[in-house]
Design a protein that fits this description.
About 45% of the residues lie in helices and about 15% in strands.
């Protein structure tokens, strides 16, 4: 081999050797980077996992979408208040549009299996499914809204919404011109029947000649059906509409026909306008915060909560009045509200007479909670029937 060829070979070997060295060095650097950068995410993941395990997980089961107002919206406002007040200690989740009945048990069970320590079910039809699952998970706290069945690890909670409904009835009774008021009713369960009766007693306390006409929609949330029911009542001659559902369609139907309305769940005046005279509304935040805190502190016990009107901060309230409501009507409502709060009067205080003319509460007496929670009759002044009776 000539010396030039040998030189080329030597140089090539050096270059190749250098390349191998560079590749080895780059590989080592890359491996080191992977090791050190890989440790940080792993540590962070472990920390996040530990934090997730240590947080108190809470689930909410909703009958409808949270939306901008209504029954589910008010519950979700309460959930958000829990996050705001207890955010570092807790983690919340919710699922919407869960049908009442057997399928609800599957949803509730899944949350319990996933490590949620407290589960709120926010509709009457979730009661039996929750009872079923509560038996399977004795270390989980279960809370059912509007029901009556309890267990060592299952409580019930609700509000005396019949109280602001009574006050809203006073407004309607004072402001109807035809003495015909329409009520779009959801399902024929004691909660709804109680609300119809309380509203009617309020109407008749200031206008004994007025009637409350009931049409059943058999819905909690169905804008089309609820509008149709309201239109049927308007066609029958009512000049004020109220309801026990989540949508504003009955109020909108009334507005379009030049009629007035009473809202429900949320202040519907802000969505429809001043034709909504007022609304019985829910405020769940304080209850949810207090209940979760009691579980965090180890003080939770099974209970049956039924909160009423308070001077401030109650679970139930009457929303602000429309400018169309005269001052004398506002003053009358405020006077009656104070009587309910201080206990000097109750909504179902005798004499209370049913549609058949039978006295169900004697003069000077008040109906007890058990009878109110199982109410299955209409009072005088209601035009309509309870399906199944």
């Amino acid at each position: 081999m000539c010396w030039t060829s040998a030189l080329r070979t030597s140089v090539a070997d050096v270059i190749c050797s250098g390349k191998r060295t560079v590749i080895i060095l780059l590989s080592l650097l890359l491996l080191t980077a992977v090791i050190f950068t890989g440790c940080k995410p792993k540590e962070e993941a472990a920390a996040e996992k530990e934090e997730a395990v240590s947080k108190f997980k809470i689930a909410f089961i909703y009958i409808g979408p949270p939306g901008d107002l209504g029954w589910t919206y008010e519950h979700d406002r309460g959930r958000k208040m829990v996050e705001e007040k207890l955010g570092e200690k807790i983690e919340t989740a919710y699922i919407e549009n869960v049908p009442e009945g057997p399928d609800a048990a599957r949803v509730i069970r899944q949350y319990a299996q996933q490590g949620y320590k407290m589960i709120f079910a926010t509709s009457f039809g979730y009661m039996d499914p929750m009872v079923e699952v509560a038996q399977e998970f004795p270390d989980v706290y279960f809370e059912h809204c509007s029901g009556y069945k309890t267990a060592d690890n299952m409580a019930t909670y609700f509000g005396r919404i019949y109280q602001p409904r009574y006050l809203a009835g006073i407004v309607a009774g004072k402001m109807t011109e035809k003495n015909q008021i329409g009520y779009v009713a959801a399902f024929p369960i004691p909660e709804v029947i109680r609300g119809i009766n309380a509203f009617t007693l309020g109407v008749r306390s200031v206008n004994p000649g007025a009637e409350v006409r009931v049409v059943w929609s058999n819905t909690w949330y169905d804008p089309v059906k609820e509008r149709e029911a309201a239109v049927a009542l308007l066609d029958a001659g009512v000049d004020i509409i109220t309801q026990h559902q989540d949508t504003t369609e009955p109020q909108k139907a009334a507005q379009e026909r030049g009629a007035l309305s009473i809202g429900y769940d949320s202040d519907m005046r802000s969505f429809v306008g001043d034709t909504v005279l007022t609304s019985p509304v829910w405020n769940w935040g304080a209850y949810y915060v207090d209940t979760v805190e009691s579980a965090l502190n180890g003080g939770w016990k099974s209970h049956q909560f039924w909160g009423g009107l308070k001077a401030e901060g109650g679970v139930v309230e009457l929303a602000d009045f429309s400018p169309r409501v005269p001052q004398e009507v506002k003053d009358l409502v405020e006077l009656e509200k104070k009587k309910i709060i201080d206990g000097s009067r109750d909504v179902f205080h005798g004499p209370v007479v049913d549609q058949k003319g039978t006295t169900v509460v004697k003069t000077g007496e008040s109906m007890g909670d058990v009878d109110m929670l199982n109410m299955n009759f209409f009072v005088q002044g209601v035009v309509g029937t309870i399906p199944g009776q």
